[in-house]
Write a structure and sequence with these properties.
The structure holds two protein chains of two kinds.
Chain A: E1 3-11, E2 14-20, E3 27-33, E4 39-45, E5 50-57, E6 61-67, E7 75-77, E8 92-99, E9 102-108, E10 111-115, E11 123-124, H1 126-129, E12 146-151, E13 159-163, E14 167-171, E15 179-180, E16 201-207, E17 210-218, E18 221-225, E19 233-234, E20 243-249, E21 257-262, E22 278-281, E23 289-291, E24 309-311, E25 319-322, E26 328-331, E27 339-342, E28 348-357
Antiparallel strand pairs in A: 1-2, 1-28, 2-3, 4-5, 5-6, 6-7, 8-9, 9-10, 10-11, 12-13, 13-14, 14-15, 16-17, 17-18, 18-19, 20-21, 21-22, 22-23, 24-25, 25-26, 26-27
Chain B: E1 2-5, H1 8-11, E2 20-23, H2 30-40, H3 44-48, E3 49-50, E4 54-55, E5 59-63, E6 66-68, E7 79-84
Parallel strand pairs in B: 1-7
Antiparallel strand pairs in B: 1-2, 3-4, 5-6, 5-7
The chains are: A mainly beta, B alpha+beta.
Amino acid sequence: MAQRLLVLVGTRKGAFVLEPSADRSSFAVKGPYCSGWPVQHLTLDPRDGALLAAAGSPWYGQAVWRSEDLGATWTHSSEGLTYGEDGPAMRAVWHVTPANGALYAGVEPAGLFRSDDGGRTWQHVKGLTDHPSRPTWAPGNGGLILHTILPHPEDPQRMWIAISAVGCFATEDGGATWEARNKGVRTDFLPGPAPETGQCVHKMALATGDPERLYQQNHCGTYRSDDAGRTWICLDEGLPSTFGFPLVTSPVDGDTFFTVPLNGDDRGRFMPDGRMAVWRTTDRGATWHDLRNGLPQRDAYLGVLRDAMARDTLDPFGLYVGTSAGQLFASADEGGSWRLAVDFLPPISSVEAVLVDA
Amino acid sequence: MTEVVLPRSLAALFPGMPHRLTLDGGPATVGEVIAVLDARWPGVRDRLCEAGPTLRPFINVYVDGEPARFATAVPGGSTVHVLPAVAGG
């Protein structure tokens, strides 16, 4: 069956669905959806084609929104998204990931929840919250948020998650128990040697074709792990800074991934010298190349948040970068050239590119 | 009877929910008003309350013009206003 490409955009003021032209040069915008709630992440469940929005309203709290008609109508649910009457109040849902015939949600304050009915009801994955380090978890500037959920592509018992200012954890028993995996990741904001947890991971991704290899953009550097996260190797040499948020892997080459370095954690967090660039490595982080063709090269004091970069799976694959000033830049040639696809959206929190039946 | 005035932004989340409605039977507290609403439009309680139960931080409730909490009494014939606080950006 023929398929069409959609670019899903979560913003501070609702969700948007963008449909590119066949050559990915122009984009039709639909939205805003979800009543203008801040949407941290918008994704699609490939099992049934439902859109899922991870959201949190300052007034009405946390919810996962669901649309079964690509945005025309929506429902929302918080049922089970709670730590109980005695637990901390939940503020927002930050990420939703379909995996293993279920949905997983990462929330603030940090925790993992599972739904077996498409997001209508949720159950707490208590094994993570029961980790002995939990009493030491403390929020960074962005909050105590579980923002990355990486299911193993073949083994349903294995999964990685990432929590800001806490670090990476892995389970190999379906979520019953979790192990902190942060060895080798710096904590420049703490005195002394890095602890077992407390690392400020911003985004993590699995290398295509190699589920033992992970890449990580951290508050303090860019990293690779060749042993499923047990140890990490710093890849900063050749990058303009150690600070950035998003990280996206190539869909075809496990050695290739992309980051968007910003000028520094305490220097404004914008494009170095006001010149926008996406940086690419094709050798697992040994060397880096800046991609600038078509991106603004003056007065571009833009930020890009952790989930605001994505790629599609066409050939050649496309890349999409959403800024905190509401622009979406798109490349239809794997980053070789870029164009401003959409301007004047609200600040962009997340971007995903998905294929749906035409 | 209890008169209830709800935020338009809340009513927009639940098909068929009016901005203003009258509840029969005289719910005795703010919490009971919310329970009656939740029975009619499942999920309302989660939008207005968090663990405790307590009202969400930026949800303000007034009973006959006086600031109220989850357990505040609602005398018969009262008007209950639910209002979103100044928040957001």
